[in-house]
Amino acid sequence: MAVQHPLELANGCYDDDGHSLRTGTLWSCVAHIITAVIGSGVLSLAWSTAQLGWIAGPVSLLCFAIVTYISAFLLSDCYRSPDPITGTRNYSYMHAVRVNLGKTQTWFCGLLQYVSMYGTAIAYVITTSTSMRAIQRSNCYHREGHKASCEYGDTIYMLLFGAVQILMSQIPDFHNMEWLSVIAAIMSFTYSFIGFGLGVAQVIENGTIKGSIAGVSAATTASKLWLAFEALGDIAFAYPYSIILLEIQPLATITPGNLLTGFGFFEPYWLIDLANACIVLHLVGGYQIYSQPVFAFVEGWSSRKFPSSGFVNNFHSFKLPLIPPLHINLFRLCFRTVYVASTTVIAMAFPYFNQVLGVLGALNFWPLAIYFPVEMYFVQKKIGAWTRKWIVLRTFSFVCLLITIAGLLGSIEGLVSAKLG
Length: 421
Prior knowledge:
single chain, 421 residues, mainly alpha, 14 helices, globular
């Protein structure tokens, strides 16, 4: 057994936040992006559209897509500073904020970004367990008929997924998980196309497109309003690209919260099983995409804070027969295990797919996708106050803030109601 300092094992340089500097390829970057973009939020879009109706639903999807594009455009101009073409590269969102907006806002940004990533990991635990349970239910319905009572818990599936993630979390960083992102990207496309195909098949079978302009009816006007707000939060969660950009560069009227687990579909059961299996495999990689920046930050900060600590900094190399040498860092092993365990426990306490997604989406959408990109763009382009571009972007930011507040309130109300109910 040999002991090495992490710098001897590093595959590249690291920035001040502990983020690995880029050593990947165009294809690894594309795989990471697809894995991050096509996430579990996609599965809730049918439910969100059903709540908002056939006019407000698609319009909301289009508007959020446009907002995400604008956000990515603004952020791309902040990749280098001070000049967007020849300036020094900012290898992380926090780097860009620090250079353009200062230390105080960097702390605020970092808190939101890492809480958002942590929350996304929780959402992925919930989604995965729901899909694993759906496979069991699908097989039950196929064996015993569609009216059978096929109810199963999800705790065991969350624990299984957590165990897998404890192992996957020992992958050092982004450029060591290209293979995982490639598999996850393929899986995300697969289940998305299966869901689309099943939806089209259901419409053909029904002979009509169900739903209404007003969306799903509710017992009271207040309930309808809360559901519409929650739907906005869910849509916001489905457009998470901005928070990770710099780090990697319907059917029946009562639509289920998760398109592929709510059982608007029963047959062919094997196709339902395949789609849900693809979701599980995708989210194994997706969990890591959103967790690796958190790992890098905490471990980088700890290494700088305790430079003489062997527990934090030393790697122990083990050579076992037939496999490459294993490099174990005790701090990494303990921290990442506790991190995964905590996301699993919280998911078990709040296993509410739509509500959790809505809270997370609304909580981070405005500050991370709108506020910081707009403010950095002002600094980068030296845009003066009360100019036309300043007024347009300020108005854009304010409108997005109002939508975010509505989505957050609706999702919190839904989460509390689900927990109490």
